[in-house]
Each structure stands twice: as C-alpha cells, then as structure tokens.
Amino acid sequence: MLPAVVKLCCGISYPHLRSTAGLQRTAVAVIGQEITHLQGWGQLQHHWRIHADLTCDEPKAEDIKPLSAKDQLFYVQKGQEAMRKALSMLEDKEGWKVEIAESNGDVICSKVMSGARKVFRLEAVLDTSVDELHDLLFVRVEEMHEWNPSIQHIKILKHVGPETIVTHETSAKTAGNLIGQRDFVSVRQSCRQKSIVYLGGAAIQLDSLPPQPGFVRAEDGPACIIIQALDGDTRKSRLTWLLNMDVKGWLPKSIVNQALPQSQLDFTRHLRRRLTVGSSHMTNCTLHMTGHN
Q1: Which of these, 249, 178, 177, 167, lies nearest to 216 by C-alpha position?
Q2: CB-based contacts of 129: which residues, under 8 Å, 6+ apart?
Q3: More exposed terminus of the chain, fewer Cβ within 10 Å: N or C?
C-alpha cells in the first residue's frame, strides 16, 4: 500500500542520508500502481473539517473532487522532492552560524543559501513523545490555530493519501507585526523511518485558490521537521526544524531575517504551552477516573 511505498521512496536517515536515485525511480513506478488502489475519496471525507469562522475565500467546488491517479502521484512526488531537498540542506554542515541560543537549550542557526536567502535551523528538546508531536503537527494540523495565535487558520484542501496533504494556511493579524499577514498553499509530506518522523513541505500553486485579498502569498520550503526520541527516552523528543521561507513583498532582508528566527522561538513556546496543557488535562482525567480528588 501507499504508506509503505512512500517510506521506501523517502529512503532517508538523518544525519547520514543515503543516495536514493535508483530507489526513487523504482518506488515512483510502484507508487503509480499503488495509487490506483487507494480508497475512494468518500472514505477520507470524515477527516475533512470546515472552519465556520474563515475570513478568506473558500476553494472552488472542483477542488474537493476525487483526485485522479495522475494528480495523486504528482502531489506525492512534490512532497517527496521537498523532503529530499530540505534534508540535503540539513546534511550540509558547512556555513551554519549560531543566531540565538536560549537558556532552555533551544538553539537557532542560520545559513546563507544560493540567491542570498537565509534558512534557519531550530534544535529543541520537548517533553513529549514522537507520536504526539506527529499527531499535533501533521495529523491534527487543522487545529494548530487553537494553540498557536500566530496562525489564523490552516485548512486541508486535498487528502492525497495517508502521508500527503495539501493545505492553505493564513497568518494571524497581530499588533506590531512588521511582516504583515501572509497566506501559503503547500504540499505536506509525512514519513516515518523506525523511531524517527520526517515532515517535509513546500509551496505549490493551485489555480482554484489564487492569492487572497488582504494577504501576500508567501512561499514556504523546501522545509522540514525531524522528530526523534531523545537518547531512547520516549518521553522526550528532539525537534529539528529547517525554516526556509520567501515572505515576498517589499520588506528589507534585515527585517525578515530577524522576524523568521523569532517566529521559530514563538512557535516552540506555544507548542510547549500546548503540551503542558494537554499533559495537565490527561492527568486530571486520570485522577477523575481513578476516584482521586
């Protein structure tokens, strides 16, 4: 089935990546056959949630029709391509410079890529499992605005398969935000190899969803997040996040290069708060069920 084939096609292990040229050609051919066996769109509709408070335009009707095998393969390949490019950036150890080192151990480094764009790498340790982070950051991505005030909404436009989705994201309007509101249309890919989860993504164009009024259509990626258990401790996870973004517009690079790493710190802070709240809720539920006050 497709999930296993996608993992095969990723063929990745961070920090030592394997060459996958021959593997990719074989796996892509297999994916073309497997996609025809995907379950119908109707069986995926229970994942589809419509937010009643959206302020942006809704996708057109044709955007929620079942995808053809050709379109499914296209999005899967785009997701895998974004993953490979992002991991290649992380694999190259040359040129990284420390931007921010927090007292809690979070570190952000930057590197100047071709075209003079800076990418940023966050390293953080979180008190949660790999599975919970994968659930929050990929499976339940549409709920992200509930705990991250920087996001106005994220909506899944296309469920391509269990490990590939296409999303529309808008940033929230906040006081003092020099960059202003952006929106993104991205393909997102999930891939697991043993105890490590890889989340990759990149911008993609959809004719049915042009740039929204009041927003600048920014481009994300190739970018990725790597989640792995910390030294065998399943209660802690190391998160590595490569942020690679073109915010578009007419902003000076100096402002953008200050705002992007700060957005990583803010995101991580909100994520930790969400994990703390979730942990407290589970503890209270357990105490209630066992009859403790």
Answers
A1: 249
A2: 229, 234, 235, 237
A3: C
Q: Exposure of 123 by Cβ count < 10 A (0-12 exposed, 13-18 middle, 19+ buried)?
A: middle
Q: Which residues contact 192 (CB under 8 A, 6 or more apart)?
A: 7, 134, 198
Domains of the chain: 2-53+68-290 (3.30.530.20)
Q: Which residues pair with 241 in a beta bridge?
A: 122, 225
Distance of alpha carbon 101 from alpha carbon 4, whole angstroms: 38
Q: How far is CA 41 from the centre of its chain?
A: 23
C-beta separation of 165 from 200 below 8 A: no
Average pLDDT over residues 77-104: 95
pTM of the model: 0.74
Note the pLDDT tens digit of each residue in 111-135. 998 877 899 999 999 999 999 999 9
188 versus 24: the higher-pLDDT residue is 188
